[in-house]
Specification:
The protein is of the alpha+beta class. Among the domains are: about 25-130, Uridine Diphospho-n-acetylenolpyruvylglucosamine Reductase, domain 2, CATH 3.30.43.10; about 235-325 and about 350-450, Vanillyl-alcohol Oxidase, Chain A, domain 3 (3-Layer(aba) Sandwich), CATH 3.40.462.20. The chain is about 30% helix and about 20% strand. It has helices at about 5-20, 25-40, 55-60, 85-95, 150-160, 175-180, 200-205, 205-210, 250-260, 300-310, 325-335, 375-385, 435-450, 480-490, 495-505, and strands at about 45-50, 80, 100-105, 125-130, 135-140, 145, 165, 185-190, 195-200, 220-230, 230, 235-245, 265-275, 285-295, 320-325, 360-365, 390-395, 420-430. Strands 15-12-14-13-17-18-16 form a seven-stranded antiparallel beta sheet. Strands 5-6-10-8-9 form a five-stranded antiparallel beta sheet. The protein has a four-stranded mixed beta sheet with strand order 1-2-4-3. Helix 1 packs antiparallel against helix 2 (about 25-40).
């Protein structure tokens, strides 16, 4: 595999680095000293440098946004793939000693790539947790320990293999019934900037609160989570019904806004909006298609009767419904209805609820008042522009259990008062990355158009759909509270202040830093 071994390769590496990568500068010395530090920690066979034949494949293995796989994308000096907590501790220690920035990557799904790139010119190191991915399910006590390198598909499959009536909410099909993933975390194994291993009891409730959604990578490294499992029953029902503009999609969508957040909490109502080829009466070859989807914790006959009473405009019938297990519904609503469950274990499969092609840009909004029909007409006109052929919007209804949690329960504050969340996505092929700014410019124009229709003061955003356009930290690592507040309050509202206080206490030197990490209070 071409792993880096200290005994034979370190002298050659230093000669190569000094001769070809830099002039003889302190950078080469730092690099060599860092590698020597790692070798003394007995993890050299888990270290990949840019000279290593496996370096590129390891780097790109969990990059799900090909916008960041270009010749000019900043790349780490070193990637470390730990097998044990001591390997993580050693990498933290050596990075601190030699002044290197650190990035921590688990699933690699960060929409702006902050877990594996850096906009700063400073050299950086990636800790890739892909090898730390065990899932231990305790059916009797309805809990599980999940290492941070595991992807959601691995968790879902492991639970389903043990008991198909148990599940985990995540952010998705069950959050209106049971809350978010963060609401169902009950313990964690965590390493701070000093290399200490902490759990919920030893870290204290403030830090435990912060790591459950307080901007990943800000406070330390979570190695594993203890989560509470929830009940889903043996059978759920799924449907997806598509309507074009010519089939009254605008009017049905307008109505959906007024009622979807009131649906029973056992329903997950969502909408996907895109364009499709057609021939319209006015001669257009494109139209907008709105797909109404729902997962329901129950039988099809119950769902049909319910929808006829509360949303008859959609025209749902039993023929539109499919009964299945909960884990199968993940495939059905994830655009993988004919796949085996094993596809959920494929870490490289690049299909999700949001993005189906390699390169993309995403933004998010929260809607508190229904958008008028004239507002949708403006949305349609922009969706039909040439640059928007790869655009997809996703509406997810709120309400249910989300209305019961206080905004301060965890750092995620978007609770009662939200009708639904919108994610805006623009996608393009990897070989079209040269035109990426054209597509991103369209997204920014559209985001500006939506301003009158969404939340205000602040205009809220979802931190897991990270968007560096709304603000980012200074590259030198020193960002004032006022600067950080610009984006911090959009993600966290009033919880932002508490996060800054905790960061100042746990990591005052700001070792764990990225473009949108919480920084200590610098004034």
């Amino acid at each position: 595999m071409g792993f880096l071994h200290s005994s034979s390769l370190f002298p050659f590496l230093l000669v190569f680095i000094v001769s070809f990568s830099w002039p003889i500068t302190s950078s080469a010395d730092i690099y060599g000293d860092f590698l020597h530090c790692l070798s003394s920690s007995s993890i050299s066979n888990l270290v990949y440098t840019q000279m290593n034949s496996s370096y590129s494949s390891i780097l790109e293995s969990t990059i799900h946004n090909s916008r960041f796989i270009t010749p000019t994308s900043p790349k780490p000096w070193v990637i470390v793939t730990p097998l044990h907590v001591s390997h993580v501790q050693a990498t933290i220690r050596c990075s601190k000693i030699h002044g290197l920035q650190l990035r921590t990557r688990s699933g690699g799904h960060d929409f702006e790539g902050v877990s594996y790139i850096s906009e700063s010119e400073s050299p950086f190191v990636i800790i890739d947790l892909a090898n730390l991915r065990s899932v231990q399910v305790d059916v009797e006590n309805e809990v599980a320990w999940v290492q941070s390198g595991a992807i959601m598909g691995e968790l879902y499959c492991e639970i389903a293999q043990k008991n198909r009536t148990l599940a985990f909410p995540g952010y998705g099909l069950l959050f209106r019934k049971y809350g978010l993933a963060a609401d169902n975390v009950i313990d964690a194994e965590f390493i701070d900037a000093n290399g200490r291993i902490l759990n919920r009891k030893s870290m204290g409730e403030d830090l435990f609160w912060a790591i459950r959604g307080g901007s990943g990578g800000s406070f330390g490294i979570v190695l594993s989570w203890k989560i509470k499992l929830v009940h889903v029953g043996e059978t759920v029902t799924v449907f997806s019904i598509s309507k074009t503009l010519e089939q009254n999609a605008t009017q049905i969508l307008h109505r959906w806004q007024y009622i979807s957040y009131k649906f029973p909490d056992g329903m997950y109502p969502s909408i996907t909006i895109s364009t499709t080829n057609t021939t319209t009466q006015d001669g257009r070859n494109l139209t907008v298609v709105v797909t109404f989807s729902t997962m329901f914790l129950g039988r099809a006959n119950e769902l049909v009767l319910l929808m006829q009473n509360i949303f008859s405009e959609l025209g749902l019938t039993s023929k539109d419904c499919n009964e299945m297990s909960f884990v199968e519904s993940i495939l059905a609503l994830g655009l993988l209805p004919n796949q085996n469950l094993e596809i959920l274990l494929d870490r490289n499969y690049r299909v999700s609820f949001l993005v189906a092609t390699p390169s993309f840009k995403t933004k998010s909004d929260y809607v508190k008042k229904p958008i008028p029909e004239i507002g949708f007409q403006g949305i349609w006109s922009q969706l039909l522009e040439p640059e928007a052929r790869g655009a997809t919007f996703n509406f997810v209804a709120y309400g249910g259990k989300m209305d019961e949690f206080p905004e301060s329960a965890v750092p995620f504050p978007h609770r009662k008062g939200n009708l639904y969340k919108i994610s805006y996505n623009i996608r393009w092929r990897e070989d079209d990355n040269v035109n990426s700014e054209r597509y991103i410019a369209w997204m920014r124009r559209f985001y500006s158009y939506m301003k009158p229709f969404v939340s205000k003061s602040p205009r809220e955003a979802y931190v897991n759909y990270r968007d560096l356009d709304i603000g980012k930290n200074n590259e030198d690592g020193y960002t004032t509270y006022a600067q950080m507040s610009v984006w911090g309050r959009k993600y966290f509202k009033n919880n932002f202040d508490r996060l800054v206080k905790i960061k100042t206490k746990i990591d005052p030197e700001n070792f764990f830093w990225h473009q949108q990490s919480i920084s200590p209070y610098f004034g």
